[in-house]
Amino acid sequence: MALLCIFALRFSVIEEKIQDIVWHFLTSITYSRVVCAINIYTGPFEDDPHEHEILLGRKVEPSEMRRRRDLSLKETWMKRKATRNSMTGSKFAGVYVREAYRVSNEEIRLVYLENQDNSINLKAEVPTLGWQPVEWSCFNSSCFDILFCSMATRFGSIRLPLTAPHSPYLHLTTELNDEFTVVPVKDVRLHAPHSYLHTLGVCLQPIFFFTDWTIVIQFFESWLAQGASKFYFYLHSYTWQTKKVLDFYKQSLGDDLELIDWSDLPVHSRDRGIYEKDPNSRVFRHGATAFMHDCMLRARSTVKFIANTDLDDLPVSSNLNISKILNLVSKRHPRAAQFKADWILSHQPVVHFDMHSVYRNEPVDETHQHTTIEMFDNANLYFLHLRRFERHLLNPPVVEYNNSFDHSLLMKLNTKMLDQFLKRIEATQFGETSLSPWALEARQTIRDLEQCRREAFGTTLDDVNEMCQQSSAGCEGMLGAGIHFLKAPQTWVNVAHKAFFNSYVERSKRFTLF
User: Contact, 492 vs 96, CB < 8 A?
Assistant: First the structure.
């Protein structure tokens, strides 16, 4: 699963009033088409006897650093892991689970995080069968995680008897543990004949230390303007202004917006923020891969097409209706597992726009014989992406830009977004709410986070130092704007926890009457 690459418009705030938010395009933007793609991952379609699921994501050209590293990623890890673990004590024993999903009568799936070198297996209590090993697989072929982040994503599968009734809870343990953990199970089975409530849905990567609440409005209005009707918004840490905006959209969209807490992994307070002891220091961007698959499972029976995206990502469809385009393409290619579309790199004199690195989608059973349909140079659907800071601040890469980009479609989208937003806030309390001040603190926080991406714990992330790119564990101490952040409550449990509960047994006593 992967992130969407998008964006070409942003907000300005007039007189610090929410009703004065207007959209304007960056008039001096130029664009360059690069080697990258959007992947739309479908499962079997409705005429298929199997299940039906879909994922909208992207694949991008890797950086030079990643190209060099990926040439021998697994070999490099194998050579260095013994030395690294002995020096840093970086092998974490925890196995962290959030939630499980009943995907069929015969199977429960779950996504979990563990150290990539762990050899401890999970076990689940299965009706009539007792404790059974959990089958597991990796999101990549090497089973080693990315950007030197050793807490890796695993996909677990629990096989059930055909007659097993649905239970809202699951008992999990490890092969070395005498205690079990209770994990919630969400029923996402597709029952024939199946009808999806939504054609296009959007999964938003967890926002962390988030301050720029105007982008939240832009996110919702851009997707709503192009046919999206279901949203899964993952939350880690954010400002009170952001909460006001989210509360407003929750009130506006109702059940079509799910606000999902996504916390850090549990860690003892004495180990918090220590690279060698805090497992969160080894999780890439709050478990981005785990989030993508969790959301795909969560939306499985509700949404036909599901997009995984960042807040600063914007899809652009020629008819301003992504749902219609995807339906038309899928009818022409009924066995397609994914569709790849162009991603356009944009540049502006003050701010450079570049891409994320994103990763592999959930593996598809080879027996389904699904194919990938490439839609490069197809004007019906493409993606723009904005980054507020250029990673290569001093020596930006040389890029040839396409100065003949047609802005007319973006202007139509801009007008549609503005019209629907003004109607949405009309006569609402939110429309009269002041969300200031915020801009200066937000800018400083964004700067600090960008610095943290490359230089956490006083060490520059490069090919030599090989440090995991930080998000919360290594970045929180680098935030100097003094902003108070609302944080998600704890949502993960450590199945490999070694603590024991006392068992109290009530014993009967015999009393003799004299």
Answer: yes
